[in-house]
Design goal:
Two copies of one chain form a homodimer.
Chain A: E1 9-14, H1 18-28, E2 34-40, H2 43-52, E3 61-65, H3 73-83, E4 88-93, H4 98-107, E5 111-114, H5 119-130, H6 138-149, H7 152-155, H8 168-178, H9 183-190, H10 194-208, H11 213-222
Parallel strand pairs in A: 1-2, 1-3, 3-4, 4-5
Chain A binds a DNA duplex (30 and 30 nucleotides) through residues 167, 169-170, 182-184, 192-196, 198-203, 205, 211-213.
Chain lengths: 226, 226
DNA sequence: TAAAAAATCACCCAAACGGGGTATTCTGCG
DNA sequence: CGCAGAATACCCCGTTTGGGTGATTTTTTA
């Protein structure tokens, strides 16, 4: 572990909400190990400023709001990482939707905090991300874990045609079969009677020309369903 | 947000290291909102105890050491989740290797903390996991994000490496399972008794942390066996 | 060579499965 | 409007599975 070598850690903030931004800057100033070097209220002005800043005043960590007017925080992070791959980004948001989390990760953000995170936590996160970690608010981490458990769901194409002429209901049930659930468990998940589930599965088998769960799972995965 | 309704949050600890375990129990006792209801120094004794505990004394959150003699924390979590799906598990470890993190996620652990985490953080994590979040130490979260960014690397072995420590015989049988064969059919194909095939499959399940053919097939295909 | 790991076979039992029916809504589409 | 196709729910029955337990033999390896 490397402790702070009394060097100031340079931090930037990109946040359109006035009160929130000012308050954040204010609070961060109580931490002598941090130095706020660049504050912007839009992605545009941030990107512009950072490009003409002299090297000595470049931030090492950026607190980036996701919801910004104009260029979003995600797009801004993407562009930032093009020119400054070494700068670490912590996304700041009030939302926890999968899509934005997933995009943020792919665009290179390493931290993900909810806006109601306590200031001490924020400061810790800044230090942690600077040491190579990825601070993530627990409620968001939950969704990240789901992505790991079920990656396909997040790579799924917007409009994929349904193979084997499976009806939407059947497709849904097939997903559960792929996940190794029993008929009873599926029934509970989709609020149907186990017999209905069974009927669906029988029809699925007919359409897919299989006669066991294992074969159906193989077929489904090979055809990129699930 | 729901705050504590002055109800005790019941916590269990599974940890073989004497000093660490005792210290942890000691420290947790300073938090009146928590109640340590079950402490074990091995997965075996933990699983045994929890099964004969009366419902009132069942833990809601378990702090599980990964590195345990005998049954590992991962295997223990897997078994625990079978019988008590509602119990949340926080893995506790000194290691940060991908394989164990990945397996922990897949067996259903929702939290992942390094052993050097401060006690206040541990307590926060316990509360957060109880509220549906997934507290993860930043250095581990880093690896989880990598899994999201590059899922293939964790679902596909680089080249011909046998995942899950499956023996050659087991691997062969797994192939047949993936092909949707019944135990009897497999037995005929490999010239073994159906009981032997069954035993192999049971062992395969244990190693892969699954409990049905469908789940095994999914796992196998994900890891490019077959 | 002695201990450990893998492979083999066997039985019991409860739960789940697969395949064959039947029948009543519901719903989209011509 | 009417009707085909979907979705829903249920039953019977024999087979298969999953889990637990126990045992012997072969192979590997320390």
């Amino acid at each position: 572990m490397d402790s702070d070598q009394s060097k100031l850690l340079k931090v930037s903030i990109v946040e359109d909400h006035d009160i929130f931004r000012k308050r954040l800057v204010e609070l961060l100033q109580f931490y002598p190990e941090l130095e706020v070097v660049l504050v912007a209220e839009s992605a545009e002005s941030f990107l512009q400023k950072i490009k003409r800043n002299d090297l000595e005043q470049q931030p090492e960590v950026v607190l980036m709001d996701i919801e910004l007017p104009g260029i979003s925080g995600i797009e801004a992070t993407f562009q930032l990482k093009q020119d400054f791959p070494g700068v670490e980004v912590i996304m700041f948001t009030v939302f926890e939707d999968d899509e934005r989390i997933f995009e943020s990760i792919n665009v290179g953000a390493s931290g993900y905090l909810l806006k109601d995170t306590a200031i001490e936590e924020v400061v810790n996160s800044i230090k942690e991300i600077h040491n190579g970690g990825s601070p993530i608010s627990p409620s968001i981490a939950k969704k990240v874990l789901d992505m790991v458990k079920n990656p396909e769901a997040f790579h799924a194409a917007p409009q994929q045609e349904i193979p084997f002429d499976l009806s939407p209901a059947e497709l849904k049930i097939l997903q559960h079969v792929v996940d190794g659930k029993t008929n009873k468990q599926i029934a509970e998940d989709v609020f149907l009677s186990p017999w209905t589930v069974k009927t669906h599965i029988k029809n699925i088998y007919k359409k897919m020309h299989v006669n066991s769960r294992a074969a159906a799972v193989k077929m489904a995965l090979r055809r990129n369903l699930a």
